[in-house]
Amino acid sequence: MSDALQSLSDALAAAVENASVGIVRVEGRRRLPGTGIVWSSEGVIVTAHHIVERNENIQIGLPGEVIAPARLIGRDPNTDLAVLKVEASTTPPVWAGGSDGNELKVGHLVLALGRPGTQVQATLGVVSKISEPEEDRKRKRVRVEGHGPGRHGGHGPGGRRWMWYAEAEMFGSIGPVIQTDVVMYPGFSGGPLVDASGAVRGLNTSALAQGSSVTIPAAHVRSVVDALLAHGKVKRGYLGIGAQPVRLPSALAEELDQEIGLMIVSVETGSPAEKSGLLLGDIVVSLGEYAVQAIDELLLLLSGELVGAETTVRVVRGGQLIDVTVTVGERE
Amino acid sequence: MDAFIQQLNNSMADLVDRTRRSLVQITNGQGGSGAGTIWHPDGLIITNAHVIAGHGDLLVTLYDGNRYPAQVLAEDPTHDLAALSIVAADLPTIEPGDSQQLHAGQWVMALGHPFGVLNAATGGVVIGMGQQLGDIQFRNGADWLAVNLKLRPGHSGGPLVDAQGRLIGVNTIMNGPEVGVAIPVHVVKAFLKTHLGTPQKQAV
Questions:
Q1: R_g of chain A computed on alpha carbons
Q2: Is the pTM of the predicted complex or chain greater than 0.80?
């Protein structure tokens, strides 16, 4: 009768063991060390930005109690990710996981793993929420659809790239997240969320959402890591405005089906905004085809892919809706 | 898949059914109560030292509801362990497992009386084991066992068992709101050996 439970127990322990070769300790702060994931055979290690408090003298604790120095390649505070490279000739084992092709679903068992000490530690839980494209359509502030051309002028980036945008409402400019009820033990930040087979599904961090831990999905980690390896930073778009949310006049609010806009309170000299003719007092209501009602939304929309591209910013000026074409710059 | 979950539920219910008979309730005569684990059929019971702290008249209630006055045989506050004795025989015990061969991620269940809810069970996984667990450094030099379980007042002294229902630890404390900490059974054995000595083989 106990066979099913023993099977589950063995499978969970095996998942941990499978994953453990690719999990390292990251010593980059005075307090308790955190965890990192071996990302490639070239010694690339991904961890949480907030546990790497110093830029030098970073040590990596490899399985088998080997300690190797590592170099900081780059950080992205927005997603709380940092990329390190082990410099020693001891190349850490290649991370053997990766998606097994099964889609992660709400209700799946998952484990959070950490190596704040010499041994890998594990906690178990269930996936509570995953960003889904369907959710976007339920929120009017996220995606405006079903309206004729000209309503929100211009053609912004469309399609699946925005599938995770709904999460932005909760998590600012982080991007996509997986939420679970898995307990993150101290020192688990930077470690992986693994599925029942031990495959890495994301990277856990406690620094992005107050009071709870979230997981950055593996695909998004990969895009950030690729950017950090290529440029040492994550490219982000830049307009050069300071703005604050204001309530729109009721007639406009009704026409746009949007109650809040962002009033421009400063325009930086020489910025893309200034060059495009955006003015103090303009109220931004959309960027491309997306309604904008919060600074976080604007930041998220200004992704690196927009850098150098022409985008339409729709503003309220003197009570009228005006489309202004901006060439998006790059945030330094 | 339904069938598998059903099997799991059956496995757990079966395991709890078997091991719960070795769980006892301990009251210290001063309003406090905790759990204990029957170690030997002749009435040897282990629990946490903090369960019997300031002990007045200790009373042990077995799974069948029978009550016995208990005598303290040994107490070690440093390791938070105590051994009690009641005058009884043929008590059900739990086969000890090897707590030095535990794996992070493996399934465990804790039995006890959380907040006075009698004979309750809760399940989770092993987080890790050792003298230092993440941010807590234990000063008594013994191994400790961290589990993904919410241990509550009333769990203390009760058994922690593996997926086969073998005794691998004694529920002891919480570290923060989410991490349960247990004393592994090999530390319990060392405690008993130190304080009670090796049982003499009797000539027949």
A1: 22
A2: no
